[in-house]
Amino acid sequence: MSRRWISPRMGALGAGLAVLCTAAPALAHFQMVYVEESALVRGGAQHLAIVFTHPFAGGPNMEMGTPEAFYVVTKRGDEGEAVRTDLSEYLTPISWAGVDNTAAAFEARLPANVVRSLGDYVFVLEPAPYYEEGEDKYIQQYTKMMMNVGGVPGNWADPIGLPVEIVPLDKPYANWAGGVFRGVVLSGGEPVPFAEIEIEYVNHLPDIEGHRFDSAGAIEAPHPAFENMSIKAGPNGEFTIGLPRAGWWGICALDLVAESEHEGKHLSTDAVLWVQAHDMPQGGAE
Question: Residue 128: which of 33, 52, 206, 53 has the closest Cα?
Fold first, then answer.
């Protein structure tokens, strides 16, 4: 990821390596929970790809361990109770091919009764911590992806109660390309002032059936900073990003739990939210 700490006591060799690292493109880790379409007219069976990768570059992919949890949260009406449905039985290990390598990932083939009724479906993945050797730490990204059936709103704006999460202020499944998207970063249920946030576009279209990224149509960034864009949340944890192109956008708030550890090493506890934008059709009033 783009987070680096360099000791002031580094020797000349270490300083030289640091220069080489900062000259290379900054690639952010993103836990993907991908489906082709998030705004559905009617429900039905769904096929999801679950990959830990660098979405703009189409890799390299990271080896995923068995997720700690995978479920969907639904709610019917303003007064309805949120219902959590475990989906871990539908997870199947696969190998996912990226531009640079192939790594362990998962797919989920959900039967028609999972995404069936009108309303919102908040999919949540709690992955196993991943050891990032280059930074000598673990990364765990609590990830949300939302779908809707029939345009009937539900619990899209409700916190799930995760240790860390991004709560949308706009529907993640109903965005025009060229618009903006807003959200708030929470840790322990409280806003995180000035949280560090990374944004990446899914530049290489996932081929779910083929278990790979398709590079056809991928664009080339004019500068590495455009591949992994970094912003800061405001004093109340809120942020706004632009959505200049149709497709999927990943938003990742970094390292939200202070002094968190896993197996004796620092654990970066991140929150990820996926947002889909659509092109506006031509025509209509002039």
Answer: 52
